[in-house]
Amino acid sequence: xxxxITMATKAELxxxxxxxxxxxxxxxxxxxxxxxxxxxxxxxVATANAEEMATALSLNQRYILEWLKAATxxxxxEYNPEADxxxxxxxxxxxxxxxxxxDFLGGYFGFTMGNLLAVDxxxxxxxxxxxxxxxSQYGNIVSTSIDRMHRPAFKYNLCKWxxxxxxxxxxxxQGCRVLDVGCGLGASSHALLQxxxxxxxxxxxxxxxxxxxxxxxxxxxxFVCNTVExxxxxxxDKYDIILCYDCIHDMKAPVSSLRAIxxxxxxxxxxxxxxxxxxSINPLENRSAKGRMRACISPxxxxxxxxxxxxxxxxxxxxxxxxxALAEQAGYSSCKRMEVGTESQFFFVLEL
Length: 352
Known about the structure:
Structural class: alpha/beta
Helix content: 40-55%
Distance between the termini: 60 Å
Number of strands: 9
Order of helices and strands: HHHHEEHHHHHEHEHEHEHEHHEE
Number of helices: 15
Strand content: 5-15%
Strand order of the largest sheet: 5-4-3-6-7-9-8
C-alpha cells in the first residue's frame, strides 16, 4: 500500500541520516587521531594499549582509551580483547598514518573540521549577508589540510595524468615554461618539476602565507604572490603550459581569470590544462558518496570563498557544461574534456 511505501521511504531516509550523523562524529574522532599523532604512533608499533600511548605522546590516558574504543568501532583500528591491545592493519596504516603515501587520506579530516568550524560565519556572512568567508579567515588548518589532501595525487598521479595528453606531454618533456595557477603550498609545482625536470615552473597564488611556505619548501620552483590577473598584468613572459588544478571555480571572476590565463599563453601550440571536481550540474546525478560530499562542500567553502570577494560564486561543481561555457566566454577556440585515468577530476585542455 501507499502507506507501506511511505513508511519504507521514511525508514530509508532515517537510516541515511543516521549514517551521515555517524560519519560526522567519526570525522571528528579521526581528526583528533591525525592531529595528535595517535594513528602514526599506533602504526609504528605492533600493538599498544592506552597507558603506553598516553606515556609516549604525553596525553591523558582516559581520553586515549575512549578514542581507541571509538576508532575501533569505526573500523579505523583493530582490537584484541584477550590481550586488551590495539593495532592497525596494513591497509589502515596506509590510509591513515603514512603521510605522503599514495593512499593517505588524513588531510581530509582537517579540511572537513576546519570548514565545519566556520559554520557560524557561513550562516551570518554568507546566508544572511550574501557575502562569504575569505580563504584566510578559514585559518591555517584549511590551507595546510588542502595541501595534505592533494599531495598524494600530485606526487603519484599528476605527471601520469599529464602524460595522457600528447601535445602537453611533448612540450613538457622537451622542457618549457609552466605556470601553476592556484599553486597553494607548492606541492603541484614541485611534482611538475620532478616529473619534467627540463621545465621552468612558476607557481602563482594570492595567499601570502601559502606562497611563503611554498618558497621555503620548494626552492627549485619560482613562486609569485598574486592573482592570475595581476600576474598577467605584471609579467611580460609567456608560458607554454598553464595548469589550473581545482581552483577556477573558487575565483572571484572565473571568466576574467581564464582570459588572463589565455593572455599568458605563448602561441597557438601552447595549452591550458584545467581540472575541476567531477560532478553534474544536475544535483540528482550527484547522489553518490563523492557527489554528496562535494555538493555539501560548496556552500561551506568554494562558493563562500568566491562570494567573500564579491565574486560570481560558481560553487564546487560546475560540470562539463559549465567548463565549456566559461572557456567560450573567455575566448578559447577549443575546450576538450580529456580522459586521463581518474574518476575524481574532469580534465580539460584549452587552446587559443
